[in-house]
Amino acid sequence: MPDTPPRLIAGSAALPAGFWHPHASEEARKIAEDGMILRVQVGSGVHGTAVSGQDDRDEMGLCLEPPQFVTGLARVPNGVRGQGPSVRFEQYERHTAWDRPGGVANRSGAGDVDVIIYSARKWARLALAGNPTVLLVLFVPDEEVVFRREEGAELMANAHRFVSRLAATRFLGYLRAQQSAMTGQAGAHTNRPELAAVHGYDTKYAMHALRLGLQGIEFLTTGRITLPVPEPHRGYLRAVRRGDMPLAEVLEAIGRAEIRLGQLRETSAIPDQPDRNWVDDWLHRSHLNYWARCR
Fold first, then answer.
1. How is domain 26-158+274-294 classified at the architecture level of CATH?
2. Cα dist. 243→46, 109, 184, 199, 237 in Å?
3. DSSP H helical segments within the chain, as ranges?
4. Sign (positive/negative) of CA torsion 88, 92, 98, 104?
5. Which end of the chain has less Cβ packing within 10 Å, N or C?
6. Do 212 and 175 contact (CB within 8 A), yes or no?
7. Does the predicted model carry a pTM greater than 0.85?
């Protein structure tokens, strides 16, 4: 646990307006805003691997749901048009790139914001399984926290409850997916053909593959993820992102990280399983407190 409890941060809970994506109805946005307990920057910005003028801003957060969505069968419309069947509320997802002609097919770029606010229950399921992306939320430094209520502060103070060797398999899976995409292997694709054309491989996927390996090794060794990525790894990752490193060298570095992750999956001293009892209790107490505030 941290030496001092994380402080509350009364930043903005406002989210971009709804869209016709299934998880972007106005009703879902209101649930996410009203119940928000944590919102942080994730992605290249928080890792310290962003390249000036090229990156969007990625944010992730958690919210608590109204009682009818937890103890009942309430659902939200399928996007603002509501043309498809209603959906369970699990997240509010919004990319500002969707506002340009082309809609949800657009790729986010410089100046765009991608935000996803998970229900606390869905986020907890993913985090307990060792999902590398959602685990990041627990380790973001204060300067990258946009909004944090008491429940979010308690969650971050108990990051160790989510630490387990289950994460090894997830880190390996994510690393391998990024590696396949970086070289365009069968069954994978790159959505940045311009990088592959210049460098012979997708340098952003390559950077993320190696980053996942390095962060997975740290997590399985220490139970923490340091953000931004410490030097000298950060500088090397940025060099990979810029295309300064030859493909053979990058593949060798990723291969070493993959081997080490495989070893730690069997030998790491961190717990075999996360503390599910604590997480269940936190979810229960947090929802009851939220519902009491809303009366």
1. 2-Layer Sandwich (3.30)
2. 21, 18, 16, 6, 10
3. 26-34, 44-47, 67-70, 120-128, 132-135, 150-157, 166-183, 193-199, 203-222, 233-242, 247-267, 276-294
4. negative
5. C
6. yes
7. yes
